[in-house]
Amino acid sequence: IPCNCWMETALTSSADSEYGATIKLPARLDMSNVSDLREEILGHEGKDISIDGSDVEHLGMLGAQLLKATAVTWGEAGHTIKSVNWSTGLREQLGLYGLSASEISTGEAA
Length: 110
Known about the structure:
Blueprint lengths: L14 E3 L2 E5 L3 E2 L4 H9 L6 E4 L5 E2 L1 H16 L4 E4 L3 H9 L4 H4 L6
Parallel strand pairs: 2-4, 3-5, 4-6
Antiparallel strand pairs: 1-2
């Protein structure tokens, strides 16, 4: 996933689910924590994952770019991303960037 990120902050760690690992997005997904999220995602490279967006209140451009790049990378590798419990705010803010939950998921969108 191409990203020249230098920011640090805590990210809720993932848990295993029936769909593989679940990565829970933070309430604020922007420059302040996209680097940590990138590392969390890369830790599951080569595996199907679920991305839980239930807590997202703010989505910055770098966060949107990371989600889209992850979807492209996982799709090209033949792996699946499932978006689960995406907040209304997350869906609306993706729309501001011309994206939708279905473009982030390579599996079922929630």
